[in-house]
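Hi, here's the filled form for the chain we discussed.

Project: internal
Contact: R.S.
Residues: 280
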Amino acid sequence: ARLNRSLGLPLVTLYGLGNILGAGIYVLIGKVAGFAGESTTLAFVIAMVTAAVTALSYMELSGRYPVSASVSVYLHEAFGKRWLSVAIGLAMVGGGIASAAALAQGFAGYLNVFISVPTIVGSVGLLVVLGAIAMKGIGESAKTAAVLTGLEILGLVLIIWFGRKAFTQMDIHAMTSVDPAVGLGGVFAGAFYAYIGFEDMVNVAEEAKNPSRTMPLAILISLVVSTVLYLLVVIVSTTVVSPAELADSSAPLTLVFERSGAGNVAVLSLIGVIAAMNGV
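And the returned structure, exactly as it came back:
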């Protein structure tokens, strides 16, 4: 049985951006700041370099083996060890569960700005609704993700615009050096979180039109756009709000938006809800 090849370049690119941005910025920037402290920007840069190397591999392999099992298939083709492919496949499932759980809790945090609901209710409710959309089909899932991703990007642009004064106030030396309070281990722990979602793009290779062309281009565009947005937003966030406050906030970018002098912070909280939904 084969899956439907119904996704063109725009939908695959937006799908990838939704995975990266929703996971890495709206919810997990607080977690990264909690680990990396004043070195949060450095943690993101390390993650970006690692992600770029990974992206080059995925650009080649997703076009050569355009099937939905992605890394498991790549390992099987390389080593021919079924146990290794199964183990890595299960690890990917585990990683997906863990990141979706973290994002679902982040969704509940942003949702509480509007409606007071227990975290468990908000998180599980989101998983049920999104599970139903995913079961309906890739076309519906990808189009939903594309709309949500457009709104996510709008939110990040608003943060950059309202916090633009941060670019004249930032301390480049502090951003590029290791914070002694957290050490190198804290920086790398923060970097672990920063690009969650990037590898998920290749899981739709079996549903992409002309995958040998579409997948490499979509991965490259997603990497470049997310890298630029990440750096700008992280610089604004860590300049306007202290890393400790970012780590303590359940809706960190809403706090950044508020401290930047924006009038209606509810707008960003709403976009935060949408971003967390999209990441899940």
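Let me know if anything looks off before we file it.
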